[in-house]
UniProtKB/TrEMBL annotation:
Keywords: Electron transport, Heme, Iron, Metal-binding, Transport. This is Cytochrome C-binding protein. SUPFAM superfamilies: Cytochrome c (SSF46626). It comes from Bradyrhizobium hipponense. Signal peptide: none annotated. Residues 70-155, 219-305 form the Cytochrome c domain. GO terms for molecular function: electron transfer activity; heme binding; metal ion binding. Pfam families: Cytochrom_C.
Length: 306
């Protein structure tokens, strides 16, 4: 396990390690002992092997969503993984990838095409992005349309509690996300967002109702609110992302999304790693933002209702 406190320091120009968790070289997943895992308010049960199957999305709460299209539920072997595995059955995603529910179908399709054509990458190589690029190259137009329409039909919900603090639990990287080290120790938050599952085993089990705590620096939510409406950004966030930042057909909802994910997008636009249809609009908005500014914007947007 790699403690988050041991991650390398960063400058304003280097990607912060807390936002781009990378499994340590000796990382190994726990072996499957055959135990049937369960989560609250569900009668379903899955083994670890089943939960790790990239071609079978665990559906813990089928009552939460319409019937999943085949591409979401099972994908298509060998290259098109089930969308519902990484993004969960009804699309909440996690800190390591995008939440999809409530985004417009047009936007989901556009972003998938940008992964396919190489316009959308990360400032740091990431397994989640590599999987998305591979799937985007194999999916058909019909499959993509079905998945996009499905996720667009689901009402978004908040699954993040944003908490301002000056100290945070010590964490380590656990399979591309941060998790609490269960020794009760804390450390200064510094210039970071520390986003962790409330119950890590529910998130590992791909429970679509899993919730997160996002610890952010003191004062960052109000700073982000002021910054989002400031002329210093050249374009106020609501001008593109809509009233209350709940999105439009061409710009995504940024309210109530993972602040770790949101920070990465701001940073990737700034570095030019993320290109595509919206990059020319975003580049002048983010080019003068500091790490502290981007943390504040991510904290503020995550604190909103979807």
């Amino acid at each position: 396990m790699l403690a988050a406190a041991a991650l390398p320091a960063h400058s304003e120009d280097s990607p912060p390690a807390w936002a781009y968790p990378v499994n340590p070289p000796n990382f190994q997943r726990a072996p499957d002992d055959g135990t049937i895992r369960q989560v609250p308010d569900s009668t379903a049960g899955f083994t670890l092997t089943q939960l790790r199957d990239l071609f079978a999305a665990p559906d813990w709460h089928p009552e939460d969503h319409p019937p999943m299209p085949a591409i979401v539920a099972t994908g298509r072997k060998p290259d098109v993984f089930a969308c519902g595995v990484c993004h969960r059955a009804d699309g909440p995603g996690g800190p390591e990838n995008a939440s999809l529910f409530g985004l417009s179908a047009e936007y989901v399709i556009q972003q998938t095409v940008e992964f396919k054509t190489g316009l959308r990458t990360n400032s740091v190589p990431r397994v989640a992005t590599d999987l998305m690029i591979k799937a985007s190259k194999g999916v058909t137009e019909q499959e993509l349309r079905e998945a996009a329409d499905y996720f667009a039909s689901i009402k978004p919900r908040s699954n993040i509690a944003v908490t301002e603090t000056d100290t945070v639990p010590k964490t380590h990287v656990r399979d591309l996300f941060l998790a609490r080290i269960d020794d009760g120790e804390k450390e200064p938050i510094g210039e970071r967002i520390i986003e962790i599952p409330e119950k890590v085993e529910y998130f590992v089990s791909r429970d679509s109702r899993a919730r997160f705590i996002a610890y952010v620096p003191l004062g960052s939510i109000e700073k982000g609110r002021l910054l989002a409406a400031s002329s210093n950004l050249r374009v106020q966030c609501a001008a593109c992302h809509g009233a209350d930042l709940k999105g439009t057909a061409v710009a995504p909802r940024i309210a109530a999304r993972s602040p770790t994910y949101a920070f990465r997008q701001l940073f990737d636009f700034k570095t030019g790693a993320r290109k595509g249809a919206n990059s020319e609009l975003m580049k002048p908005v983010v080019e003068n933002l500091s790490i502290e500014d981007m943390i504040a914007l991510a904290a503020y947007t995550a604190s909103l209702t979807p």
